[in-house]
Amino acid sequence: MTDEDRPWLVVGLGNPGREYAGHRHNVGFMVADLLASRVSGRFGRHRRAMADAAEGRLGFGGPKLVLAKPLTYMNLSGGPVAALAQFYKIPPAQVIAVHDELDIGYGQLRVKCGGGEGGHNGLRSMTKSLGTKDYVRVRFGIGRPPGRQDPADYVLSDFSSVERKELEFLVDRAADAVESVVNRGVEWTQNAYHGS
Questions:
Q1: Is 10 within 8 Å of 68 (Cβ atoms)?
Q2: Is 75 annotated as ligand-binding?
Q3: pLDDT tens profile 67-98
Q4: Tens digits of residue pLDDT in 96-114
Q5: Which of 83, 101, 126, 146 meets the CB 3.0–4.6 Å disulfide criterion with 78?
Q6: Cβ-contact 101, 122 below 8 angstroms
Q7: CA distance 27 to 17
Q8: Which residue numbers mark the site Stabilizes the basic form of H active site to accept a proton (predicted)?
């Protein structure tokens, strides 16, 4: 299988269950759901990994995507990601994690390959299970908690009413950034998305 034929694994990080659906920590799931609708993919339980997965192509004859939402809760996301990467024979360089990021202002996007996990337990688990930090991250800024609120409580709370007014647009933009990484590469995407 050549690199051109090899699918991309796009992992939305989050927590399974209806009670977590609107939380800041689940923005990765929101982006994965939107990408699935764009490629006409339907999520279903994968037979080899503790994850819901969907498959589709970006455009007619375009790159193949495997979209995943781990079902293990955030802290153990790495196991399902590694199982899917092995099943589809996808190298870490073609794995994209979409996740919330406390250290970036709300609505800002940052794309990078490799680097630290910044205290993000989902990324830490992925790095451990994949055996490398060299996968792509699409970081969705949620900003720091107000006042003295515990960051753990903040990420496990719903977006505010003000934030929700922009959320659909921002999730759409994050999905665009994922498509851009697949079609044009990390560097092009950084130049296009980091300025705004």
A1: yes
A2: yes
A3: 999 999 999 999 999 999 999 999 999 999 99
A4: 999 999 999 999 999 999 9
A5: 126
A6: no
A7: 14
A8: 100
Q: How far apart are CA 66 and CA 55, in angstroms?
A: 5
| Order of strands across the sheet that contains 95-101 | 44-45, 51-57, 64-70, 8-12, 95-101, 136-141, 109-113
Residue 121 marked as a ligand binder: yes
Residues assigned a catalytic role: 25
What domains can you pick out in the chain, each with its CATH number?
8-194 (3.40.50.1470)
SS3 of the chain = CCCCCCCEEEEECCCCCHHHCCEHHHHHHHHHHHHHHHCCCCCEECCCCCEEEEEEECCCCCCEEEEEEECCCHHHCHHHHHHHHHHHCCCHHHEEEEEEECCCCCCCEEEEECCCCCCCHHHHHHHHHHCCCCCEEEEEECCCCCCCCCHHHHHCCECCHHHHHHHHHHHHHHHHHHHHHHHHCHHHHHHHHCCC
